[in-house]
Specification:
Length: 387
C-alpha cells in the first residue's frame, strides 16, 4: 500500500438551506419527515424576539400540529433536557424543530437522544455513545457562531459537577439546517461579538486539529477569511444585512469544519470554565484564544502560519516567533475592536479555581485533537496566563 494516500477522513453534514427566508421552508421539511406533531424548542429570549411565532405561524399555515417547549436557559442543563424529553413523550411528538442559539439547539439534541434511547442525558457523554437514531431534527439558528445546526456536538451543563459535558455523535447532526441570516438581526452587539469570536475559534481550532484534512481545511480557511474580514465591521454596523450574511456563512463553514475535524484546548478549557461559572461560551473562548495559540504554536507552526496569512497578515521574511507574535497581536486587536477584552480575573476566576478547572478541561473530548499534547499542568499554566 502506498504511503502517499491521505489518511481516511469522514465528513458529515445536514441538508443545508442557506439564505434570507430559509426559515420559511420549515413546514415543508416537517411534512417531508411525516410530522404528526412537532416539538418546537426555543428559549424565552428568542420567543420575545418573535422568531418562535414566526416559525409556529409557518407550521400552522400548513396545518401541522405543534407544542412549544421554551424552558431552556443559557448553557442548557440536564434537568431541562429531561423535562423536554418527558414533554415530547407526553405529547406524542415525532419531529423536533429548534429555533434559537446554541442553548435551545443543544437542548433539542438532548431531548432527541433521551426520547429515542431512554436513560439520563449525562450518561451519553463522550464520543459515539448513542445507539438508536433520534427523531428528525430541523434546526433554525438565530445566532451566527454556535453551529449546533450543522455539528455532531451537543453540549449540556452538568449542574452537580459544574461542568459542561460534550456529546459527540453523528446521531446528533440535524437532518436539516435552515440557515437564515435575517434571524441574526435581533442579536445585541455583545452576543454578536461572542458568537462571532466563537465561530473564529471553531475555524482556527479545526484547521490546526490533529484530525484536520482536505475535507475540512477549505471550510476552516473560508471561515477564517469571512469572519476576520467582516466581524469588526458588523459590530460597528449591526443593521448591515450583507455583513450579517457574511458572518452567518463564515459561522456555517466553521461549523462544517469543526464538526468533522473536532476542536482543541480552547474549547476544552472553555467548556470547563463555562460550566463552572455559567458564563457565555464565546466570551470564555475569547479570553483563552491567544494564550492557547501561544501554547500550541510550535506544535503546528506551518498550519498557524497559514492561519496568520488567511487573517491578512504579511508573513514574508518573518521568523516563526515573529509570525506567532503577529498572529497573537491580530487576535488581540480583533477582540478589542469587538469589545471582548475581559481577563479571567475580571469575571470572577481566582487562582484557587485553576486546579479544578484544569482537572476538568483535560477530560474534555476536545483536548484529544489539540495539536499539542496537554497535561493538567500545561492547562493550568494557560489559565494562569489568561488570569
Ligand atoms: Fe464553540
Amino acid at each position: 500500500m502506498s504511503s502517499d494516500f491521505s489518511k481516511l477522513r469522514k465528513f458529515v453534514s445536514p441538508e443545508i438551506i442557506f439564505g434570507a427566508g430559509a426559515r420559511k421552508t420549515v413546514a415543508n421539511y416537517a411534512r417531508t419527515f411525516g410530522a404528526r406533531k412537532v416539538l418546537l424548542v426555543s428559549d424565552p429570549g428568542v420567543e420575545k424576539a418573535g422568531w418562535v411565532k414566526d416559525v409556529s405561524d409557518s407550521l400552522e399555515e400548513e396545518g401541522i400540529e405543534y407544542v412549544t417547549f421554551t424552558d431552556v436557559s443559557p448553557n442548557p442543563r440536564e434537568d431541562q433536557v429531561m423535562r423536554g424529553a418527558e414533554f415530547y413523550r407526553e405529547h406524542e411528538c415525532n419531529v423536533i424543530v429548534a429555533v434559537g442559539g446554541g442553548s435551545p439547539m443543544d437542548c433539542a439534541k438532548g431531548i432527541g437522544i433521551v426520547s429515542a434511547n431512554g436513560g439520563f442525558i449525562l450518561d451519553y457523554e463522550g464520543i459515539d455513545r448513542i445507539d438508536a437514531p433520534i427523531p428528525p431534527l430541523i434546526f433554525i439558528p438565530t445566532t451566527a457562531g454556535t453551529s449546533a445546526d450543522v455539528s455532531q456536538f451537543a453540549i449540556i451543563n452538568d449542574q452537580s459537577e459544574r461542568v459542561k459535558i460534550s456529546i459527540v455523535s453523528k446521531a446528533v447532526v440535524p437532518d436539516v439546517a435552515l440557515i437564515d441570516p435575517e434571524t441574526t438581526a435581533t442579536m445585541d452587539p455583545f452576543l454578536s461579538a461572542c458568537t462571532g469570536v466563537d465561530a473564529l475559534v471553531h475555524a482556527i481550532e479545526a484547521f490546526v486539529s490533529t484530525a484536520a484534512g482536505p475535507l475540512t481545511d477549505m471550510h476552516a480557511l473560508d471561515a477564517i477569511r469571512l469572519i476576520n474580514g467582516n466581524l469588526e465591521q458588523l459590530i460597528a454596523n449591526p443593521a448591515d444585512i450583507q455583513l450579517r450574511e457574511q458572518i452567518m456563512l463564515g459561522s456555517m463553514k466553521a461549523g462544517l469544519a469543526f464538526s468533522n475535524a473536532i476542536l482543541g484546548a480552547v474549547h476544552a478549557m472553555s467548556h470547563s470554565l463555562g460550566g463552572y461559572l455559567d458564563l457565555p461560551h464565546g466570551l470564555c473562548n475569547a479570553m483563552l484564544l491567544e494564550h492557547v495559540i501561544d501554547f500550541n504554536y510550535n506544535a503546528a507552526p506551518d498550519r498557524f502560519k497559514v492561519v496568520a496569512e488567511t487573517m491578512g497578515l504579511d508573513t514574508r521574511g518573518l521568523t516563526t516567533p515573529e509570525v506567532k507574535a503577529r498572529l497573537m497581536a491580530r487576535v488581540i486587536e480583533l477582540k478589542g475592536h469587538v469589545g471582548l477584552t475581559q481577563k479571567l480575573a475580571e469575571i470572577g476566576v481566582n487562582y484557587a479555581d485553576i486546579s479544578p478547572l484544569s482537572a476538568k478541561a483535560v477530560l474534555d473530548p476536545c483536548i484529544l485533537t489539540n495539536p499539542r499534547k496537554s497535561s493538567k499542568r500545561d492547562v493550568e499554566v494557560v489559565y494562569e496566563e489568561a488570569l
